[in-house]
């Protein structure tokens, strides 16, 4: 990896040309199998993230990390003698919004895609990028629904829900859980994580599945769900949706008298999960998580660069987003041009050491060595368990 630029240089670069989109003028549409941009123009990387909506804090963190990667690449001379530009659009974690945003990104002649947070928003965009020949490096979304079309142009930075489910069940057994209630919100990632968790628990016999429940996103309360969980005699709950609903579900479970352990998936540990919870409500709340830089001393130098650029510490969703950009840049270097098919082929041969560790991909585009963390609530903060 190139030596990073100074904080002052990075800040200036971030303020200048590291980001386009959200109302910018369209570039020349792509033609054929490769980017049509002239040799002197920047190499564009596309991204979709929830810049608005309930998951906007995660989307903002993703875009910031991607902008930092772009700034550092440009400070080191760019790639193939050209600067890199990030084209970021808001998908709001909404499928319809994501489709429109994807069409906008494709029109801006991107060489590769480096975003993706909510799987439900990503799934309907896959065909759009595939038909345009744009290889996709998906930073955070990890539902196995992403793999269903069988596209060879898709690469996942994070481990799939199958790997996360196995990690979760193994840890819930260690936490002395015996009867498990699994709850999801009816969207792609939460459903596939819930189904994978229940299947692995049954297959291994490590936990008895006491119930599988669905709640509605954005509801005022989940007291009925809480009462169903208590009625099932579950002693541990795994909620696989996002942090807004997780926060309310925790309140309602504790309010209904549930005293067991509550575990949430990575979509809930990335965000204000513990806001407005009392000490009693947050007791014995855990989460399976992707990478959290504050718990990774090996990322100290990078975290300092991020804070110098944005004035805040990097949270969840940042390391993977940064890695997605760097993996794309490395693939473009090895391809030696911006032909999208050449970039796709180079991505398949990736052997890169990123913030999130060694990066190589299986034939289906999944990561060979995914990494997850177990966190535990401690007052208003989440602390590392393993």
Could you spell the SSE succession in H and E letters? HEEHEHEHHEEHEHEHEHEHHEHHHEEEE
Largest sheet report? 7 strands, mixed
The DSSP helix count reads: 14
Task: Kindly provide the radius of gyration, computed on alpha-carbon positions and rounded to a whole number of angstroms.
Answer: 21 Å
Looking at this structure, what is the CATH superfamily of the largest domain?
Response regulator
What is the CATH C level class of the largest domain, in words? Alpha Beta
Summed over residues and divided by their number, the pLDDT gives a mean of 90
Number of domains: 2
Which structural class should the secondary elements be placed in?
alpha/beta
Strand order of the largest sheet: 8-7-9-10-11-14-15
3D structure, described in words:
The protein has helices at 7-15, 56-75, 95-107, 119-122, 126-131, 161-174, 188-204, 223-231, 243-255, 266-269, 279-282, 300-310, 318-335, 340-348, and strands at 19-20, 43-49, 84-90, 112-113, 136-138, 154-156, 179-184, 208-214, 236-239, 261-264, 285-289, 352-354, 357-359, 373-378, 381-384. α8 packs across α9. It contains 14 helices and 15 strands. The strands form four sheets. A seven-stranded mixed sheet has the order 8-7-9-10-11-14-15, with helices on both faces. A four-stranded parallel sheet has the order 1-3-2-4. The chain is 39% helix and 17% strand. A hairpin with a 2-residue loop joins β14 and β15 (381-384). It folds into two domains: 7-158 and 294-355, Response regulator (Rossmann fold), CATH 3.40.50.2300; 161-289 and 373-384, Response regulator (Rossmann fold, 3-Layer(aba) Sandwich), CATH 3.40.50.2300. It is α/β, with parallel strands linked by helices.
